Amino acid sequence: MRQPVYHHVEASFSPEGLKVELIKGLENPEAFISPKFLYDNLGSHLFTAITHLPEYYPTKTEKQITQQYQAEIARALGENACLIDLGAGNCQKAESLFDALKPSSYVAVDFSIEYLRDILPKLQSKFPTIEMMGVGMDFSSFLSLPGAVAQTRRNFFYPGSSIGNFSQSEAAHLLRQIQSNALGGGLLLGVDLMKEDSVLLKAYDDPLKLTAAFNLNILRVVNPLIDANFDVQDFRHTITINHALQRVELYLEAVRDVNVAWTGGSRKFKAGELIHTENSHKYSLSSIQALLSSSGFERFQTWSDPKNYFALIYAQ
Q1: Structural domain of 157
Q2: Is the pTM of this model over 0.85?
Q3: Residues 237, 256 share a domain
Q4: Is there a contact between 120 and 91 (Cβ–Cβ < 8 Å)?
């Protein structure tokens, strides 16, 4: 039976580089930790649980759009391309497209190669004719696909509005790299659209506190990387809706004065002081198309839900 193959792009996971990045963020006057550190094995499982919450609209709305317009999406993307799933997670979103797209190969890219090793063998057994590859890579800085990825027409898939985690310049940098690697294919992009505060607050601070657990887990990820002594009990999850910048901001707030030490340094976090962990930018259809155009894409097909909560865009 065919088995998935795995590649770990070591250059994107330089241990020293990750340490420098983390310490620089923690020493910043406004402390921050990159959201990519949210997605270790446990973090990936927690996020999968979040997507099942009734309050978390992006996943279910995106699924509804995909199901309703699957035939149109399939015609736009075409069959037999290499499907490259960025931030693949549990791979279920890509799997829902397999029957329609009939990809010649499937490349799941995720920050956690360990999570992919759990997921891909089961997926491969369900679709034995599709060549499958798991790639552990931090593509937030650069997209460097292994040479083993098929040199054929490629359709990139970046669902869930993960593009919203990037600033405008960072998003444009990633999109330009995707465009140059598509080899005649394109990008199917999930985009969250701006909406009323009440919906956003419930989605990013759910009553079951799964999002809080997901956010707090980042401290457990950081500890072994820089030999830090963060205690999750010293912080709580909090969010802000930044209307000026059209985004939801996630933070960890110190619940008491606490001293945190790490290799070569330390910092006192006063009660109420924040560590910024994630932005989730929201777009309008015009603003996301402008971003895609500036990144080298020329043609677009768009599908949305009746409430205009979310959109899927195929860009070439």
Answers
A1: 43-195+282-315
A2: yes
A3: yes
A4: yes
